[in-house]
Amino acid sequence: MRRTLLAALALAAAAVALAFLVLPVAAIFLRVPPGKLLHQLSSPVVTDALIVSAKTSAIAQALIIVFGTPLAYLVASRRFRGRALVVTLIELPLVLPPAVAGIGLLALFGRAGLLGTSIPFTQTAVVLAVAFVASPLYIRQAIAAFEAVDPDVVAAARTLGAGPGRTFFRVVLPLARGGLAAGEALAFARGLGEFGATIMFAGSLQGLTQTLPLAIYEEFALDFDTALAMGALLVVVSAALLVILKLVLTWQPSRQTSGFLFVRSS
Amino acid sequence: MATLSADFGLPLRSFELRLALEVERTVALVGPSGAGKSSVLRAIAGLARPSGRIALDDEVWLDENVCRAPDERRVGLVFQEYALFPHLSVERNVAFGGKERVGELLERFRISHLARARPRELSGGERQRVALARALARDPGVLLLDEPLSALDTHTKDAVRLELQELLQSFRLPTLIVTHDYEDAAALADTVGVLVEGELRQVGSPTELVSQPSDPFVASFTGANLLHGRVQSLDEGLTRVRLESGEVVYSTDTAQGDVGVVVYPWDVSIGRIHVDDSALNLIRGEIASVSRVGNRVRVRIGPLTAEVTEASADRLELARGGVAIASFKATGTRLVPLAS
C-alpha cells in the first residue's frame, strides 16, 4: 500500500518536472498559429536581428576556432607548471554571471578602460562578447578531445617521418574531429543566445548590435507575437544543434562519451 | 649491414636507465615489466630525450651538439599495441610511412586483400603485419620492435613468432626487440641482453645466458629452476649444497656461502621409484601440479619444475598429489653467487 503510494508520488513528481520543462517551449508554438508566426518573421526588426545574429555568430565562432584550437592543443599535449591554473582560467568565463562579463569587457575595451578603445556599442563589441562567453565551451571540449587521442599514434606518425605540422593535420585533427565539432556546437548555441554581456557591452541598436535575443527582449512589450516568432526561430535552431551534437557524439562511440564536459586539470 | 650504437642515460621515475649497446643484427632486450625496456626504444626513436650518444654508422642522431627529431631519425618503430591510425585504411596506414613501395609491401606481408579495411576490423596478427609494413615503408635504417608478440593470444603467438623470425632474417636491418619473454627473445634474436631496473645485467647469445647465467635473476629469467642454499663443503671437485628446503644437492661448479642452485627443467628427470643411475641429485616429493605446455608436460615437485614428454607423463601416470622422485646430474647443476 505504502509502496504503491510512493510510486504514484514519484510518477506525479516526474510528470510535473517534465511538463515544467516542455510546456514553456510548447507554449511559444501553441499561442499563435504557425502561419502567423512565419509571417511575423518578415518584419524588419526580425530580419535585422537575424542578420546581426548570423554575422556576429559566424565571425565570433571563426575566431573561437582559429584561436581556441591551438590553445586547446597546447594545453592538452604539454605538461607544464601552472597547467591546472590555465585550465581553470579558461573555464572561469563559463561560471561568471553575464553581467560581470559585460562589465569586464567594458573595463578592458571601454573608452576609459585599460586598453581605451572605441569598440563598445559597435558590432565588434557583439562579436567580442559572444566570443568571450562562448569560447570556454569549445576550448574545454577541444582539450578533452585532444587528450583522448592515443599518444602512441601521434608518436608513430613522428617516427614515420611526419613533422609536427603533418602529424597535427593528418592524424591529431581527424581523430579529435568529433570532439571538436561537439564543442563547437555547444559554443555556437551558447553564443547565439548571448544576452547579458552583449546588452552591457554592445547595447541594443537595431540593425547594428541588436541580436535575436536582444530583439525578443525589446519587442515583447511592443509586439508580443513578433517576439514569439523570434523565440520559435531560436527554439528550432537550438533543437537542431542539439540533435547534431548528439549525432556527432554517437558517431564517436569509442571516444568522448565520459569525457564530454570534463577536462583533466593536471 | 649497418650498426646502431647507443650509449646513453635516461632518468626514469624510480631509477636511471643506463645502456651501452651495439646493434648489428638482431638484439633482444629482455626484462620484467618496468625495467625500462620501452624507454630504450623511445630514446633511440627520439621520443624521449636521454643524454649520451646514438648513431647509425656515422650518422649521429644524438650527442652533445645534435638531437634529431623523431621524423629525422630513420627508425621503424613497431609499437606494442601497434598504434595504427584508426581513421585510415590499411593501405593509407602503410602509405603514411612512404608511398613508393606500398603495393609491394602489402603483397609481401599478405595484406593486399585488406588494403581497404580499417585497423579495427583486423585480427592481432594482421595488425602486426600492417604495423611492420608501415614501419618498413618509411625505409628505416634500424627496426625497433616493442613486445612484438605480447598483444597476441597464445594460439596465434606461436605461428606469428615463426613468421616474424623468417621476416626479420629477410629484412637485413639492424633490429632491436624488447620483450618480457625469454623464449621469444631466444627465438627471434641472436644476441640477448637482460635488462633489470634500467641496467644491463648480461649480454650474450641465448645459449650463453642459459648455460652461464651471471646472476640468479638472469638464471630464473631464462626459465631455470632457482633453489636457494648454502655451500657446506667441497670435495673431489664436487660442491655440496644444503638447500633451504633441507635436501642436499651436488654441483660440479665451485662456490662458497649462500648460492643459487640453477637447474633447467629439461635437465630434470622424473621417476616413480629410485633408479640407481648417474644422477647424483634426488628430490623426493609430492607432485604439486601437472600442466601441458605445447607438446611437453611441466611437472612441479617440491621446489623443482621438470619438463618431460607427454608419453613419459602418461606412462608414469603423473598426477597431482602423487609422489615422485626428481633427479638431475651434478654436471647440469649451476651455482650462482647470491647477493645477500
Q: What composes the largest sheet of chain B?
A: 6 strands, mixed
> So what's the oligomer here?
heterodimer
Low-confidence stretches of chain A: 253-266
User: Number of helical segments of chain B?
Assistant: 9
Average pLDDT metric of chain B: 89
Radius of gyration of chain A: 22 Å
Reading off the top of the CATH hierarchy, the class of chain A is best stated as Mainly Alpha
What is the number of E strands of chain A? Answer: 0
* N-to-C SSE string of chain A, H for helix and E for strand: HHHHHHHHHHH
The low-confidence runs of chain B, each spanning 5 or more residues with pLDDT under 50, are none
Quick structural gist:
The complex is a heterodimer of chains A (266) and B (340). By secondary structure, chain A is mainly α.
Task: Output the keywords.
heterodimer; A: 266 residues; mainly alpha; B: 340 residues; 24% helix
Describe this structure in words.
The complex is a heterodimer of chains A (266) and B (340). Chain A is mostly helical. In chain A, 75% of the residues lie in helices and 0% in strands. Chain A has one domain (39-265): MetI-like (MetI-like fold, Orthogonal Bundle). Chain A contains 11 helices and no strands. Mean pLDDT of chain A is 90; it is low at 253-266. With 340 residues, chain B is α+β, with helices and mostly antiparallel strands. Chain B has helices at 37-45, 90-97, 102-108, 124-137, 154-171, 182-188, 206-211, 216-221, 310-315; strands at residues 4-11, 16-23, 26-30, 51-56, 59-62, 75-78, 142-146, 175-179, 191-196, 199-204, 225-235, 238-243, 248-251, 258-263, 269-271, 281-293, 296-301, 304-309, 323-328, 334-337. In chain B, the strands form 4 sheets. A 6-stranded mixed β-sheet of chain B has the order 6-7-8-3-9-10, sandwiched between helices. Chain B is globular. The mean pLDDT of chain B is 89. The chains are: A mainly alpha (266), B alpha+beta (340). At the A-B interface, helix 7 and helix 8 of A face strand 6 and helix 4 of B.
